[in-house]
Amino acid sequence: MSNLDRAPVPSVCGGRGFVVAEPVRELLSPRQVKLGESTEVRRLLPNLGRRMIGAWAFVDHYGPDDIADEPGMQVPPHPHIGLQTVSWLHQGEVLHRDSTGSLQTIRPKQLGLMTSGHGISHSEESPRPHARFLHGAQLWVALPDEHRHTDPEFEFHPDLPTVTAAGLTATVILGDLDGSASPGTTYTPIIGADLALTRGADVRLPLEPDFEYGVLAMSGEVRVDDVPVLPGSMLYLGCGRTELPLRAESDAGVMLLGGEPFAEELVMWWNYIGRSQEEIEEAREDWMKGTRFGEVHGYDGGPLPAPQLPATPLKPRGRVR
Fold first, then answer.
1. Closest CA relative to residue 235, chosen from 243, 245, 225
2. 7: which DSSP letter?
3. For residue 253, what is the enclosing H or E element?
4. Domains in the chain and their CATH numbers?
5. Which DSSP letter does residue 142 get?
6. Where along the chain is Fe cation bound (predicted)?
7. Is 122 annotated as a binding residue?
8. pTM (2 decimals)?
């Protein structure tokens, strides 16, 4: 799970000064980004207008892609600091390797959760052979200052709790939804849930008014708080909600992302989340020297080199531009 942009723009995000304290309906459009050799993704966070939703700091949506005659996802070993990665699939499978020695194939509705802490490296690839279609989301969760130097760890949870209602099955990825809690480790109040809706479903999902929320449309036709949200786009909802109306015009899948607004300002560049440009520079140097991040064994290829840092200094911009 990587940001493979060869000219990533550093930005400062987080802080509560730009949190929308009331319900809103802000539609976020993606930008197209190349991921690895053959996968193109739609990047929703960070976005031109918004950088975070709770502790969720990075969201890519990809597929469904027909990779029957393609290599599929091929992301070489690369480093992370200061975050957790969440691998979430609707179709296909991804083989995860990391510098803690983890080797795990992740399949639809299974949680692959990697905590980078002070430093980890990993690769992701479509297995050989692999399923015809690949469809999923890649997400990062920012770690708060008191936990961002923890030891790196990988968790795999093949069975997750669900919440059901007429026409709705909600799989709890992280956090707690309507009394059902995910086994995944979290470090801030957060929610991530996969919502499968059948055609004609008209439901109201309970929410925490102190959380801010966003809904990522994965597939199908769905109206979120009466706003049509097309696959690959996200609706930011703000705070102050106790419930969320959802109506499915067809069978549909969406992801609910939310959490307590993240209080700290963060510097995010390439695959790092830190607190200063100096910290980012040190992490880049450590990766290029082959220290700190360990080694990924078994990937057929070399590690991903870090791009050059920009010459211009970072400018704090808060949670929104």
1. 225
2. S
3. strand 252-259
4. 21-259 (2.60.120.10)
5. E
6. 78, 80, 122, 124
7. yes
8. 0.92
DSSP element (H, E) containing 282: helix 277-289
Q: How far apart are the C-alpha atoms of 121 and 183, rounded to whole Å?
A: 23
pLDDT in tens, 136-182: 999 999 999 999 999 999 999 999 999 999 999 999 999 999 999 99
Q: What's the rounded Cα separation, in Å, for the pair 118 and 126?
A: 27
Q: Is 153 labelled a binding residue?
A: no
* Integer angstrom CA distances of residue 155 from 85, 101, 115, 172, 186: 10, 12, 8, 15, 11
Check whether 78 is labelled as a binding-site residue: yes
- What CA–CA distance (Å, rounded) separates 52 from 44? 10
Residue 181 amino acid letter:
A
Any known ligand binding at 135?
Answer: no
Instruction: Write the pLDDT tens digit of every residue in 100-140.
Output: 999 999 999 999 999 999 999 999 999 999 999 999 999 99
For residue 47, the SS3 value is coil
Q: What's the CA gap between 84 and 152, in Å, rounded?
A: 9
